[in-house]
Amino acid sequence: MKNTVTSKFLILSIFWFTFLIQKNSVFAQGCSDAGFCTMGAMRPDQPFSKKINIRLRSVSLTQYIGLTKFDDQILSYIAEANVGISDKWQAQIKLPYTFVQGPLANTQGIGDISLSLTRSLIQKTEWQLNATLGAKIPTNDANFKNDTGLALPMYYQTSLGTYDIIAGIAFINKNFLFAAGIQHPFNQIDNGFKWGIWKEHPLTETANHYPVSQFLDRGTDAMLRAEYNLRFSKWSMNVGILPIYRFTPDVITDPTTGERKELDQSKGVAVNGLIGGTYNFSVRSSLKLLLGKQIAQRYKNPDGLSREWVNTITYQYMF
Q1: Which is nearest to 311 in space by CA: 271, 277, 269, 284?
Q2: DSSP string, 196-231
Q3: Which of 38, 92, 121, 240 could form a disulfide bond with 274, CB atoms 3.0-4.6 angstroms apart?
Q4: Which contiguous run of DSSP H or E holds residue 299?
Q5: Strand, coil or helix: what is 297?
Q6: Closest CA to 90 of 49, 54, 136
Q7: Quick one: which H or E segment has residue 74?
Q8: What's the CA gap between 314 and 319, in Å, rounded?
Q9: Which of 26, 25, 33 has its CA nearest to residue 74?
Q10: Cβ neighbours of residue 266 closer than 8 Å, sequence gap 6 or more
Q11: Are 244 and 270 in contact (CB under 8 A)?
């Protein structure tokens, strides 16, 4: 019976992987950037144990690689720690360092700090219900400039420049994970990118392809995650889908009129397909791989969160 299930899962995974590779559109809202869908109860490929009152603790290092539609290459290293405070509470902290290389400039710096607390609401031997409350803290004003002092688009920023609150809830058992979450930013981004300031620069045509993000107010996002996970003693595989809906539009300062302007085309849903796997070297250490590709996208992303594709590799140590 188990061999039959495994065979069907492998066929599904191969089909899903092939479908994702053949999709040529943009990976909108890469979640390793916005952050909330890898926090606490909402993160993918979570460990599950039938033991009640188990206290999980782990540290991990993730390498994240992404490519944007403007040929910007993003490389991030993310240090993460999860600490079981009690049988029901777990704390998480994440700190990334990001490199961006693109046609307009190369930038690097510390990314936004993610903090969260997760509480186990219901613990059964066969399933669990968990809830997370968290925050993202900016590490800079998201207004890096090029060598001549021209403001760069949000695609080149290592921070989103906003203080965000995050909340979510998740159901998990041996094979399934269903999660929902919301992320709300509280302040305006001090980014100064607009097309006019680049008009005398040799790369003005390239700069004009990027969306204006002058004094951006980012919209509020909601996410859903559905994941199927096939677990064995040494390895596991997972396939999933991750819709992210921006239900309030982004707002910028119009470079022509100087007035605040809502970008209606920044609203809507981005649907992402995911496939991944984990190999357990021992009960304490493991290696995780994840590939994400876009299925549906929003038309405009002035916050710089669109990606052609993303993949991550994570080493995790549990104690």
Answers
A1: 277
A2: GGGTTSTTHHHHTTSPP-TT-BPPPEEEEEEEEEEE
A3: 240
A4: none
A5: coil
A6: 54
A7: strand 73-84
A8: 16
A9: 33
A10: 219, 246, 249, 250, 298, 299, 300, 301, 302
A11: yes
Residue-by-residue pLDDT tens, the chain, 319 positions: 555 555 555 555 455 555 444 444 433 334 434 678 899 999 999 888 776 555 678 999 999 999 888 999 999 999 999 999 988 999 999 999 999 999 999 999 999 999 999 999 999 999 999 999 999 999 999 999 999 999 999 999 999 999 999 999 999 999 999 999 999 999 999 999 999 999 999 999 999 999 999 999 999 999 999 999 999 989 999 999 999 999 999 999 999 899 999 998 899 998 989 999 999 999 899 999 999 888 888 888 999 988 878 899 999 999 8
Q: What are phi and psi of 96, to 5 degrees?
A: -100, 155
- 271 SS3 class: strand
- Is the CB of residue 202 less than 8 Å from the CB of residue 239? no
Q: What is the pTM of this model?
A: 0.88
Query: In which residue are the tokens 């059964």 written?
Result: 124
Q: Which two tokens stand for residue 216?
A: 């951006």
* Two structure tokens written together for 151: 């403001």
113-123 and 89-101 beta bridge pairing: antiparallel
User: Tokens at residue 314, please?
Assistant: 């994570």
Give Cα separations from 250 to 111, 116, 132, 229, 307 (angstroms): 21, 25, 25, 35, 18
Q: How far is CA 8 from CA 33, 172, 177, in A?
A: 33, 21, 19
Which residue segments constitute the domains of the chain, with CATH numbers given? 2-318 (2.40.160.40)
